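Rotation project, supervised by the postdoc (A.L.). Task for the rotation student: set up a whole-complex structure prediction and record inputs and outputs verbatim in this book. Inputs entered:
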Amino acid sequence: MHLTDEQLNEYVDNETNEREQIELHLHLCDECSKRFSDLQNLFLELDSLPDLQLTRDLSTRFISSGGLIQQPPRWLTLTVFAQAALALIALIISIPVITTYIPQIDTNSLMTPLFEIQSLWNTWLDSLSTLQLPTIPEFPIPIIEMSSLLLALAGIFVLWILGNGLLLRNQIRR
Amino acid sequence: MNAPTDRDLILRAKRGDSEAYGEIVTRHQTSVFNVCYRILHNRSDAEDLAQETFMRAYNRLNTFDIEREFAPWIRRVAANLCLNFLESQKTSTQLDDERDEDKSQSPSGQVEVKERSEKIRQALASLPSNYRLVVELRHYQEMSYDEIANELKIPLSDVKSHLFRARKLLAEKLHAPD
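Outputs recorded:
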């Protein structure tokens, strides 16, 4: 009884649990020993295949870096967070201005929902005013003129755009 | 000064250092290209897929476990890409008129090596693509039967039958008289 192809292949691949029995058989059977030797020679031939060389250097694309998605550096990530914080501050500053100017707009169709929102907002402010907070020292708050406020908002907007431009500059693929 | 290890270069590449990734590509491009070539047997496709392999790997670098060896991982990515490519092609690829170079041999030795290598490549190219893949993963990437079954999502019995039949066919082709 000879070894099957499956037994022989699994033995060569170290994928069998019958190693001892197979080795014993290989010592005794010339035919199976010859088949085993042929299989080993095939392995040697496959291993002997030399590597082909590339006709172009694949690394140039990565080193010249035009087409890569870059990881943003740490300072740029911090810039994004700073932008978000500035945007939040700008929003908080602009809310009282918006609530002051909205009643002056003569758009009757829009007024009703806007008044509803304003009333909700006032309710929320009222409930906030009743909230007991620890006393904090008072600082003199400068009175900001409308033109300065708009100028500040425009400045924040420009900074935001510039920051995003820098962030996305290296992320355009190909 | 010692050359940086793959691990060092990958850490730098993860931080956005494209020069470091370029060095990684330089180190591994030949082996990745040869994985693609052994599976596809077409130089142009193999070079394109090797390039694509490094692009994919770069995009997945953040998920790459730095404690793993890079070389087997990138070769596996390449084999997977070639598998997808073959599935999308659905046509048999043609063997390039490729010639192996081995400058360390004497002229007569070089001719022998070239002829033998060419015969092996012809034999590999003549295999059905699913057999070729199994041979690549077992012989050149040294994966176990179970790993191959998982990688190709086929039953273990299919891995064995493909591999054993592939070897039989290769032996017949290689030992057939010219």
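Student's summary: The first helix of chain B runs from residue 6 to 14.
Supervisor addendum: Chain B touches chain A through 48 residues (CB under 8 Å).
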